[in-house]
Structure formats: C-alpha cells, structure tokens
Specification:
This is HTH-type transcriptional regulator MetR. The structure is a single chain. This protein has about 300 residues and is α/β, with parallel strands linked by helices. The protein folds into three domains: about 80 residues, Winged helix-like DNA-binding domain superfamily/Winged helix DNA-binding domain (Arc Repressor Mutant, subunit A); about 100 residues, D-Maltodextrin-Binding Protein, domain 2 (3-Layer(aba) Sandwich), CATH 3.40.190; about 90 residues, Periplasmic binding protein-like II (D-Maltodextrin-Binding Protein, domain 2, 3-Layer(aba) Sandwich). It has twelve helices and twelve strands. The strands form three sheets. It has a five-stranded mixed sheet with strand order 4-3-5-12-6, with helices on both faces. Strands 9-8-10-7-11 form a five-stranded mixed sheet. α1 crosses α4 and α2 crosses α3. The longest helix has 28 residues.
Amino acid sequence: MYLELRHLRLLRAIHEQGGLARAADILNLTQSALSHQIKALEEQTGIELFLRRTKPLRLSAAGMRLLRTAEQVLPLIEAAEADFRAVEQGRAGRLHVAMECHHCYAWLLPVLDRFRRVWPEVDLDIRSSLSLKALPALQKGQVDLVISSDPEELAGITFQPLFDYAPTMVVPADHPLVAKGYAEPEDLRAETLITYPMERARLDVFSQFLDPAGVEPAHVRQVEQTSVALMLVASGRGVSVMPDWVLREHAGNPELATLPLGKGGTLRRLYAAMRQEDLAQPYMAYVLRLARTEPLRFLR
C-alpha cells in the first residue's frame, strides 16, 4: 500500500466534517474529485474505508485505524511546515554562539537574554570555545556567531565591529608599578601572570604586549573565574590583564590598582564573526545591534 499525505488529510477532513461536501470545501476540491480520490485509495488498499450506508458518512474499522495514523502524522508534518515558513520569513533560525574572549560572558549573557525575548523561535545556544576551534567551527556551520578580537581573512566569513576596549593591567594596590603609572613589558619579567585558560595567541597580554617585546613572565597561572583572578591579585599572588570594562566593575576595591599597558595605553576592538550569507537574516541584524549597545553600560 502506498500512502500519501493527501490521503491522510482527506480521511481526517471527512471524519471531522461529517460529509463529503463540507470536507471538499475544506480541501479546496470538488465533491466529485474527492469521491474519486477516496475510490482510488480504497482500490489501492483493497479495503473499504467508509460505511456508505450511514448518514453522516462514517469511517469503517479499517478507516478508523488509518485515521489514528493521520492524527499522529499530520500534526508533525504541519509543525514542520510551520517551522519552514518561519525560517523563510526570517522569524526562526539558529544562533549558536562561541567566544574567543573568556570574559565576554559578562555583557553577552544580558544581550542574549534580551534577544531570546524578542526572537523566541530562534534556537539559541552558547558553545564553549574551549571545546572547539571557534572560527573553523563557524566555517563548518557548527556555530553561527563568534566573538573575537582577532579578525582573519577567511572565505565566506565577515567580521562586524562591535566596540573598542583597553586591555588593562591589575596589580595589588601596594605594587611598586603603581607609582610609575603604567606597565611596560619588562615589568612582567619577574611577575606571575594570571590569565584565563585560553590559547596564548588569543590573550591580549601576550599578542599585543609581551610577545612583540620578546618578554616572558616568570610564571603563568591559569584560572577560570574573573573573581578568583582578582582575589589572587589582591593577595599578592600575581598580576593580570583584563579589559577596562571588566575592571571598572571593581574600581571601588581598595586592594587593587589598574595600569595601562604602555605609557599611552593599548586599544583593541571586539568583533562578531559570522557567515556572509547570514547577514541578511533579520535576527542576526538584531543581535548585532544589541551587542553594540548593551556593553556601553560596562564602558561608561
């Protein structure tokens, strides 16, 4: 037996409408065309699906069994069709985010919380950049947006600017460098540098400050949490480098002091990397607008 969705739909319509005339109207068919389809289906199955001697028209035992199949299958098909229409209209899609900046959770989570309230039909998720290579994953379609401060020339990938920030050193309040007023690479030669557990090339303190000067800190200690890193700094266990907007939240801590990297400071830009074709998605444009405005409260 070969069943098509139209067979299930006509069976359901006749059962729900209680007759051929009303079912034909629902299905946008003539009553004659509907009768022919029923006859063809019964000939194909070799089973009578309707009790024609009853009024209103009722399903036979075999027809009722097939109706149960229709009631299980058709809602799933209709839900899938609704999903496809939502995607086509730009109301639905997928937004899986990965970050190459460990500290970005502080402003990104409020952005995504606002986003999901406006775009509830978009499948939203955050993927850890520690478990995958974020930009290659973007190219492969495993994620849809990557937060990064290191734009690259990648086929099919565009880097949209979000906002600028200043990598800033945080030291104990009584550290000798406080009197100097800024930090130079040589100042870290004898220090324990506290960093996030990320690739060295993705850490501003190395890529923008120490590596160009050929300087290595005495020790490197990795910690997951910003609060833990700052506690260690306040305890005199080392120094760290974080974005200025992260450290502004802790500006009232008398045990900590902040210093620019270099006499004139260092400025970096954060980007949202995404596939070129996804720029046309309305929800992508929306999340970009949020990602450019929400962090301003941290930067003030």
